Amino acid sequence: MAERKITLEELSQHVKDTDTWMAINGTVWDITGFAGIHPGGPDIIQEYSGRDASEPYNSVHSLKLAENNFEASQRIGILDAEFVADKPRMENTRNPRLENDLPQIDEIINLDDLEAAAEKCLNKRSWAYFSGASNDSFTKADNADFYRKIFLRPRVARAVQDIDTKTKILDDVYDVPIFNAPASLMMLAHPDAEMALAKGFAASGSTIIIPTLSSFSTEEIIEALPAGHPFYFQLYVNPNKAALKKMVDSLCKLRPKAIIVTADLPVFSKREANERYEKRIAKQKRASEPRETTAEKQGGQARSAGVSIDPNLCWSNIKQLKERTGIPVFVKGIQCAEDALQAWKIGCKGIYISNHGGRAADTAQPTILTLAEIRLHYPFILEEMEVFIDGGVRRGSDVLKAICLGAKGVCLGRPFFYALMYGEEGVRYTMQLLKDELETAMQLCGITSLSEAHTGLLNTRELYRDVESPQSLSSKL
Ligand SMILES: Cc1cc2nc3c(=O)[nH]c(=O)nc-3n(C[C@H](O)[C@H](O)[C@H](O)COP(=O)(O)O)c2cc1C
User: Region Disordered: which residues (predicted)?
Assistant: First the structure.
């Protein structure tokens, strides 16, 4: 049966909270009630209710995501309009997300070069979103700076020509211990977003941690991986019980190696770079109309994503998730030894030490210090659980330091957004760059396998000066 055609005029009549339509890439959907559960917040949905939302939709979502998310019964018909915004295409292989031409990829010789290219080439909104942190960005800076408090203590004359960087996590062996730190809205860096990330990581002998707020559907991303390739899933626990159940049910079918529950962002933090950007743009747009939307007041996309994160998430919910799914659970956002112990006590298989790259509580201690704290107070956790860490890792030698202190997987967030400016090639290139640096650091320290990494290769005196003392720890448990 031919689908019903809907004119722009008819579409524009469906704007009430109880009767809302929206057109996306030529299809008209009944999205009544969706504003309240849209992961990106209600404002953009309200703004585009009764309109063709293809352009904002395509800037952060894959073509199929809406079809996967909405029920067939919500499909009203097709838009009867001459112009339907098209998905941004890679004309002449130029990434449409960029404002300036990228340097040749082989001019990038370290991650600082990559970041400098991102600052120059990304559009201002994406740069503010990716590079920003909360409040004064102290934690973001400390995450990286604290790696410099650890000195290497290289061993010499150890025959280091043949080297491998394999790591085993759960039952899987990866060629490198390096993963993406899961992050939302990757399509702001490149139209291929997580598809390029998945392919690039698999080709590099690692795998992807798929974020809840991905631009492509989880199914699409898994299809980009070689058949049977392991993957992880980062879960934001949705406060809407029905939406959470739908997601958990589908995860049970897709069988990630572990569900990584992000717990460090119960409420949205103050992201000032975003806030400034959104306010500036809003001012330009509404020179004649002083009304602010909630999103503008709160910093646009930075805060609006908060609707998909449950502020009442508790350890008991994490335990239930583990029991209900039978899939290993890791807790992401561990920022002190006490919470690492708590995760161990409820039977989590892993901890993921993170402070959200300084995007959650500003002045939270740097992540490498948290790892040292856990090592000092509860060393058995590092033996019995899988340990991931992220935050400020920018060199292969940082990866080695984290592994010497007990991490199994080391993740990078912002650098892979920036790598994505070059698509899949950028992800592979960045992985190779980090692998080369890691291998060289290992060889210069006199080891040929990560199983030989140990704290004796490090001088951590300066780091341990800042580690929380046993007295204050036990009194706060
Ligand atoms: C732009 C951006 C978006 C992020 N989105 C998420 C997310 O959706 N879920 C999550 O658990 N962490 C998210 N994070 C935090 C990262 O997983 C990671 O903790 C952080 O980026 C690590 O610090 P680094 O960027 O210094 O490597 C995001 C980070 C950035 C920079």
Answer: 279-305
At residue 229, φ and ψ (nearest 5 deg) are -65, 135
Q: Which helix (H) or strand (E) holds 234?
A: strand 232-235
Structural domains in the chain (count): 2
CA distance 58 to 60: 5
**Residues 374 and 240 both lie in one domain:** yes
**pLDDT tens digits, residue range 107-140?**
999 999 999 999 999 999 899 999 999 999 999 9
Residue nearest to atom 29 of ligand 1 (CA): 183
CA of 257 to the centre of ligand 1 (A): 20
Whether the complex's predicted ipTM is more than 0.85 is answered with yes
Give the pair of three-digit tokens for residue 332: 């992401």
Ligand 1 atom with the shortest distance to the CA of 213: 8
Query: pLDDT tens-digit profile of 64-75?
Result: 888 878 888 899
Residue 58 per-residue DSSP state: H
Q: Does 395 contact ligand 1 (Cβ within 6 A)?
A: no
Residues with active-site annotation: 356
Q: What spacing in Å lies between the alpha carbon of 30 and ligand 1's midpoint? A: 32
Q: Is 394 in the pocket of ligand 1 (CB under 6 A)?
A: no
**From CA 269, how far away is CA 272, in angstroms rounded?**
9
Regarding the beta carbon of 234 and ligand 1, being less than 6 Å apart is answered yes
Q: Please count the helices (runs of H) and the strands (runs of E) in the chain.
A: 22, 17
Determine if ligand 1 sits within 6 Å of the CB of residue 39.
no
237 in the same domain as 351: yes
Å from CA of 425 to ligand 1 middle: 21
Instruction: Say what the pTM is.
Output: 0.91
In angstroms, what is the span from residue 356 Cα to ligand 1's centroid?
Answer: 5
**Could you tell me if residue 254 is inside a domain?**
yes
Question: Residue 15: which H helix or E strand, with range?
Answer: strand 15-16
Is the CB of 215 within 6 Å of ligand 1? no
For ligand 1, atom 13, which residue shows the shortest CA distance?
183
| Burial degree of 239 (CB within 10 A; 0-12, 13-18, 19+) | middle
Where in 249-395 does DSSP place strands (E)?
Answer: 259-262, 329-334, 350-353, 386-390
> Is residue 139 included in any domain, yes or no?
yes
Q: Where are the beta strands (DSSP E) in 52-141?
A: 75-80
Ligand 1 pocket check for 356: Cβ under 6 Å: yes
Residue 18 domain boundaries: 5-80
